[in-house]
Amino acid sequence: MTALAERPTAEILEHLSTIARGATGHAAAAAALELAAQVVQDGRRRLLTLAAADAQLAGEPHRAADLLRRAAAIGEPLRAPLVEDEVSAARREMARGRYRAAERGLAVIVSRLWETGAIRRLPSVLSMRSWALARAGDLAGADADAEQALVLAPLTGDDQAVARARHTRMLLNVLRGSAVADLVPSPSDPVGIGLELLAGLARQRPDDREKAVPAAEFLPDLLECRLIRNRALSPGDLNTLHGMSRSAAAPIAANAWRVLGLTGAADGFTQATRLHTAMDLPFDNARVHLSYGERLRRDGDRRAARNQLRIARDAFRDLDATPWLQRAERELNGTAETLSRSGLTPAEYEVARVVATGISTREAATQLFLSPKTVEFHLSKVFRKLGVTNRAQLARIFPATVAA
């Protein structure tokens, strides 16, 4: 076969491969790559390997496995690019909280792996990039990369990539408020579900460093769940948080400072905000402002709380983090100056606001860091001041009180 005959095939192959790496066309790309492998003299193994990847992404695992076996039987060397240094650099960027920079570096690696046919590394790098994209706030991109990693991993036998891609999926569920049936019992409280999912990430017991990063990064969230449940943390838990606040990994330190702020540490939110100025973590940063606003509101400083909560609200809106946006908006409603006309104290108003949504006393207590008994105590005063006798009446008139 002459070079002249090969050239049009190569050009067509390049064009089809470019199209196929988008949302659709993997089956067509696999067919074109397999045909190209029949007419070229050199590089047949690379073409068949790429065809196997496209067949797998097209939902044809049996065809993909056959193509991969045929590629291996050719015996040609498959020169995989050396990407260890670049992957290590991306990990260092993530440890600094610079996820956008990490994502850009990983995107270059993904492109090189596709070009050279080194698909065995693809699931691993795609799963890392999906995590970086999610942390940087690109939810659609993160979802797409996690999906590709999950589809390709069975072809290459990369179980660790599957675990990391599932971490990404859990984080996306946190932001979007999606319930996962086997992890959470009820979709009634999307933010509560989100916290439990973050705690689930922290409960992972990985056996390698790559999978340990998400677990360590969200360990403060596990302690936050404990704080919500028990209304206080043990001395051991507080020591753990203080230790994590000194972590060399900036995201871990910032998250620890945020939870310390929730416990009443004077400089917790200040330290968390300072760390976020050098990081690309829009969701985490918004949570700092949300937590700070909640704390200020509980302390009675409604004006300062509004400033923090508005920042959080706008950030959650930009991220399409709907349940967190709704939570920030509810907290903002709780800081309205006009609410004083109702005659409720801040604590009474907050109990009324939460109970009026229809949740149980126990659920309200969990959200408000109160005991069920305290919720009922405040609720009895709310009923008397507003002239209502049951929760159904409260639900009907409380929105009018808020808008007054």
Structural commentary:
- With 404 residues, the chain is an all-alpha fold.
- Among the domains are: 3-74; 84-176; 340-403, Arc Repressor Mutant, subunit A.
- 74% of the residues lie in helices and 0% in strands.
- It has helices at residues 3-20, 26-39, 44-57, 61-74, 84-95, 99-116, 122-136, 139-156, 159-176, 190-202, 209-217, 219-230, 235-244, 250-262, 268-276, 282-298, 302-319, 322-333, 346-355, 361-368, 372-386, 391-403.
- The radius of gyration is 26 Å and the shape is elongated.
- The termini are far apart.
- Mean pLDDT is 82; it is low at 1-6, 180-188, 205-212 and 400-404.
Provide the β-strand percentage band. under 5%
Order of helices and strands: HHHHHHHHHHHHHHHHHHHHHH
Helix content: over 70%
Q: What is the overall shape?
A: elongated
Radius of gyration over all CA atoms, rounded: 26 Å
Largest sheet: none
What's the pLDDT, averaged over the residues?
Answer: 82
Parts with pLDDT < 50 across at least 5 consecutive residues: 1-6, 180-188, 205-212, 400-404
Alpha-beta classification: mainly alpha
From the N-terminal CA to the C-terminal CA, the straight-line distance is 83 Å
Short description:
With about 400 residues, this protein is an all-alpha fold. Among the domains are: about 5-75; about 85-175; about 340-404, Orthogonal Bundle (Arc Repressor Mutant, subunit A), CATH 1.10.10.
